[in-house]
Specification:
Elements (H helix, E strand, L loop, with lengths): L15 H20 L3 E2 L5 E3 H4 L4 H6 L3 E2 L11 H5 L7 H4 L2 E3 L4 H10 L8 E10 L11 E10 L5 H16 L5 E7 H11 L5 H8 L2 H4 L1 H10 L4 H6 L10 H11 L4 H20 L4 E5 L13 E6 L10 E6 L13 E7 H11 L12 E3 L4 H16 L4 E3 L6 H10 L4 E4 L2 H6 L1 E6 L5 E5 L3 H9 L1
Parallel strand pairs: 1-5, 7-8, 12-13, 12-14
Antiparallel strand pairs: 2-4, 3-4, 5-6, 6-11, 7-9, 9-10, 10-11, 14-15, 15-16
Helix pairs in contact: 1-7, 1-15, 7-14, 8-14, 9-11, 13-14
Amino acid sequence: MSQKPSIPKGTRDFSPAEVARRNYITGIIRGQFERFGFQPIETPSFEQYDTLMGKYGEEGDRLIFKILNSGDFVKNLEPADLAAPDAQKWTPQLCEKALRYDLTVPFARYVVMHQNEIDFPFKRYQIQPVWRADRPQRGRFREFWQCDADVVGAGGIVQELELVQLYDRVFYELDLKGVTIKINHRKILSGIAEVIGAGEQLVDFTVALDKLDKIGREKVEAEMLQKGIPQAAVAKAAPLFELGGAAQGQLDQLKELLKDSKTGMEGLAELEELFTESSKLGLKASACQLQITLARGLNYYTGVILEVAAPESISMGSIGGGGRYDDLTGIFGLQGLSGVGISFGLDRIYLVLEQLGLFPDQLDQNLDVFCINFGPAEARDALRLVMGLRDRGLRADLYPEAAKLQKQFKYADKRGAPYVVLIGEEELANGTFIVKNMEEGSQQTYKREDWVVFARSLQT
C-alpha cells in the first residue's frame, strides 16, 4: 500500500509563483543591504549544541531543534538517566548539534573564528533559513527565513540611525507604507527594574513586560508576581502601562522616574539622540515610536532594541526586529566587541504584501516568449529562435512535443507568456515566423533574419 506523502507541521512547499514573490522581496532587501555597505556571508544550517544553548533565555532554549547523535545515541546513558523525568538534563549527551535558532549567534561565532581575517567594523548581511520548535500558526512557522544585517566593532548611535533608515528604505521600495518601527532601550528597562526594586529579576521582569500587547496588563502583572517579583515593585511599575503619545513626552516622564539610575539615564540620552536625529534624516514609509514595554526577551540585547510592526490594517506579529548587543562575542572568548543588527521577517512580510495586494503583476509572468511545437522540423527551427532570444537575455521556451494547439496555448497562458511564436509548415518553407500578442489578440509576421528586430521590441 502506497504511503500518503506529507511534510512536517510548520514547514511549507513553495510554488514557482511563491518563489518568484519571495525572490522579489529578498532581491529588494539584498539590494538595500549592499547599498548600505553590508557584505554577504553564509553559515551552516546546524551548529554545535553548546554554541546555541544558553543564548536565548529559558524560553528560547526550549524552542531549539536538537539533532540526535548518529549511531547508538543512548549508549552513554545509564538506565536511571533514561528514567529521569527531566530529559533536559541528559539531552547534551544525546545531541552534539542543533539547528540554528537565528542568524545572530552563528554570526557571533563566525566573527570570533574569523577575527584575524575580518576588517573591523565589519558589516555583514545574511539571508538564510532558521528553525524553531514553536507552535505553528498564521505568520509563525517552524522553518522560516531571516534576512539579517549586523555591524560589529562600532559603538555610538550612528549605526542604530543607519539601521532605522535601512528598514525604512526597504519598506519604501516594497511600497509598504504605514510601518511602525518601535524602539526601546535595555538600559532603560534595567533602570526601571532597579528603581522599582526588581533589579535582581530583570529577565523575568522584561519577559513579562514584553507580553503586554499580547496578553494585557492584568496577565502581565500576574506573571510578574508568579515569577516572584514583589507586589510593591509591580505597583511601582504601574505608570509604565499608561505611557503613550509622542516620544519626547514619554522621555520627559521617564527622566523623572529614572533620575536616580545612572544606567537608566544613559539609555534615555541615547534614545533622545536617536529620535532627534531620525527626525532630521526623515523617513519615507515608516514612523518611529517609543514603546517602553518593548523588551524582546532575548538575553543578549544590551542597548537600543527595535521591533517593526505592519500597518495597523493588517493583523500580524512583528515583521522585523533587532538591537544592540555589546558583548555577544564575549561568550566565545572575544571580549569588548560591540555589535548591533536587525532582521527582516521574510515570511510575514510576504503575507503582508499579499494581503495588501502589493506584489507587482509582472511577477506572475515567468516567460517573455513561448514557441508552439508543430512537429520535429518546425521545432528544430523554433529552438534556434529560442536560443537566440535567450542569448539576448529574454526568457523563452518551446513546448517539448507537437501536442494539440489548444493545449499548448493554454500552457502558454498559464506560464504568463505575453507573446507566442508560431512556426508551422508554411512559415518553415517561407523563412518566416508569426508572433501573437496574447493580451491584444493581434499577430505580426517577421522574416527569419529579422528575429533580432523582434527581440529588441521586447527589450524597449
